[in-house]
Amino acid sequence: MNPQVSIITATYNDGRFLNECIDSVINQVFMNWEWIVVNNGSSDNTEQLLKAIDDPRIHVCHLSENLGVSGGRNHGLKQAIGTYICFLDGDDILPSTSLQARLKAFESDASLEFVDGCVKSFKGDLSNLVGEYKPAFQGNPRSRLLSLDGSVFYGNTWMIKR
């Protein structure tokens, strides 16, 4: 298997959200992916939920201590072999066309290094939408990110070309 997209999740005590997260990855329209899930020392039912997954594209690493989100993501990055990298938190879900749409943006402009995505925020459950972020720019977000102007603040929505 030579995945085109490596999805990296560092999760800590996200058990109550994890089944929806898992389903959202497995149900992607674009199927050439690997998912590296780093259980960052969780003390809830996260480990049991991850052990129940039976998909050869999903690689789970259980850490005994919490390295923090950056440490967990870096642990996953060391294992990633995809051409593109994206992050997904354990309490988040990907719309079924998320990977496909971001790859299409890369195909339309070979100079892109990053592609940002939309974010919908919910309170309590998926029926209570409280906010939505949509990228409001075209092209490479690097200068906007470095300026911290808030227009590309959701770093976990990016897909990055290796």
- The helicity comes to 25-40%
Beta-strand portion reads: 15-25%
Assembly category:
single chain
| Helix and strand composition category | alpha/beta
Q: What gyration radius follows from the Cα positions, in whole Å?
A: 15 Å
Series of secondary-structure elements, N-terminal to C-terminal: EHEHEHEHEEEHE
Task: Tell me the strand order in the biggest sheet.
Answer: 3-2-1-4-8-5
Low-confidence stretches: none
Explain what the structure shows:
With 162 residues, the protein is α/β, with parallel strands linked by helices. Helices cover 29% and strands 24% of the residues. It has five helices and eight strands. Strands 3-2-1-4-8-5 form a six-stranded mixed beta sheet. It has a two-stranded antiparallel ribbon with strand order 6-7. It starts with a strand and ends with a strand.
